[in-house]
UniProtKB/TrEMBL annotation:
Residues 9-170 form the N-acetyltransferase domain. This is GNAT family N-acetyltransferase. InterPro entries: Acyl_CoA_acyltransferase, GNAT_dom, N-acetyltransferase. It comes from Roseibium algae. It comes from the Bacteria. The lineage of its organism: Bacteria, Pseudomonadati, Pseudomonadota, Alphaproteobacteria, Hyphomicrobiales. Pfam families: Acetyltransf_3 (PF13302).
Length: 188
């Protein structure tokens, strides 16, 4: 069971009760604007089932975050080993990613939870590097990546293999963070 805690958040394993709030999150067109489309309830449930299977198989996955004070489901943040039908140009890797409810935007929750996951990835899992990627136009996520110390090199940019050629979201940026850099710059 994943259980990390920050000043304001609890990062935990998936529970059956997360299905409905996750479905609302994944159905929100504004939350999903940097993804090919919002998800149906069935697609959202399948996403949660895949996350739970990844947790079992890999030991990590994108996992729910909740507000410590209220217990409110805010979305998910975590580490994951990406799996697509075609490999990413930088495979194998562990990525850090997030998707938060609009009510949680602008409060620093993504960065706070991501910092806890970075510490877990580098100190507990002993990872050498953690990556993050998103479509070029996703400035909010790119700002989180920069805020948590990740570095973008335009030479690493790529076309996402899961999107069809010419798709408006196909062009992606890659951010990286080495353990040595994180240790030198992290405020813990």
């Amino acid at each position: 069971m994943i259980y990390l805690e920050t000043e304001r958040l609890i990062l935990r394993s998936w529970q059956t009760a997360d299905q409905a709030p996750l479905a609302r999150l994944n159905a929100d067109p504004e939350v999903m604007r940097y993804f090919p489309s919002p998800l149906s309830r069935e697609e959202s449930d399948a996403l949660m089932n895949r996350a739970m299977a990844k947790q079992e198989a890999d030991g990590v996955c994108f996992a729910p975050i909740e507000e410590k004070l209220t217990g409110k489901f805010l979305g998910f943040v975590g580490l994951s080993r990406p799996k697509y039908n075609k490999p990413l140009p930088f495979d194998p890797c562990i990525e850090i990613g997030w998707r938060l409810d609009r009510s949680a935007w602008g409060k620093g929750y993504a960065s706070e939870a991501a910092q806890a996951w970075l510490q877990y990835g580098f100190d507990v899992l002993d990872l050498e590097e953690i990556v993050s990627f998103t479509t070029v136009t996703n400035q909010p996520s790119r700002r989180v990546m920069e805020r948590i110390g990740m570095v973008h090199n335009p030479a690493d940019d790529f076309l996402h293999p899961a999107l069809e050629e010419g798709h408006p979201l196909e062009a992606h940026v890659l951010y990286r963070l080495k353990r040595s850099t994180w240790r030198d710059t992290s405020v813990r």
